Design the sequence.
């Protein structure tokens, strides 16, 4: 039987935590006198917390001492976690459980590959933790996307070769990482943003079991 490794990003693929990141970053940016827009938030998708704060400060022409910088990073995370702690199953994006359950029925290994350091907490909150064979998150990798480390580690943990893995991603950096890892990249979102992906779907409601079966076979 064919075994492929199916690797899912978290934010914007399984749950929509992007809105919480936006609220938390906006509050932080405004607190240091920097404007923050939805467009700018798009540029922080899939980017580490440290890099995100560096970008915000650059946009606002601000500089901070190392202490202040660290303090702000912690504050942002606390703020974000206060939203996360109220999450439940209603936050799962449409048809994600259907696809996960189908993969489990087909005995396909499933991994999470996310930059989020809060991935486990979020999966617990939305009751999906048990669906994953391995979780590779921001606590376990040194290099963020577009570096492929997170996906290569996930493949290794699943015991599946990189070129037999399929990645679901909503961020440009994530698609680049999947492509760099020589994996099949499936974009979840807008075609014009994710034009480097092998396939793009608006969300999982557009992904059929037939399509997944083809991926497993080929």
Sequence:
């Amino acid at each position: 039987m064919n075994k492929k490794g199916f690797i899912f990003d978290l934010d914007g693929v399984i749950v929509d935590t992007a809105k919480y990141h936006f609220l938390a970053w906006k509050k932080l940016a405004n607190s240091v006198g920097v404007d923050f827009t939805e467009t700018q938030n798009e540029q922080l998708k899939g980017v580490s917390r440290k890099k995100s704060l560096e970008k915000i400060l650059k946009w606002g022409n601000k500089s901070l001492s190392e202490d202040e910088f660290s303090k702000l990073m912690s504050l942002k995370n606390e703020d974000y976690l206060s939203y996360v702690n109220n999450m439940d199953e209603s936050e799962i994006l449409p048809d994600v459980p259907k696809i996960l359950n189908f993969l489990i029925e087909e005995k396909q290994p499933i991994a999470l590959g996310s930059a989020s350091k809060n991935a486990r907490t979020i999966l617990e909150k939305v009751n999906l933790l048990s669906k994953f064979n391995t979780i590779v998150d921001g606590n376990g990798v040194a290099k963020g996307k577009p570096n492929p480390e997170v996906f290569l580690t996930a493949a290794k943990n699943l015991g599946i070769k990189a070129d037999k893995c399929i990645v679901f991603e909503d961020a440009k950096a994530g698609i680049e990482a999947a492509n760099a890892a020589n994996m099949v990249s499936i974009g979840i979102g807008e075609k014009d943003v994710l034009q480097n992906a092998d396939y793009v779907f608006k969300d999982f409601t557009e992904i059929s079991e037939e399509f997944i079966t083809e991926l497993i076979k080929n």
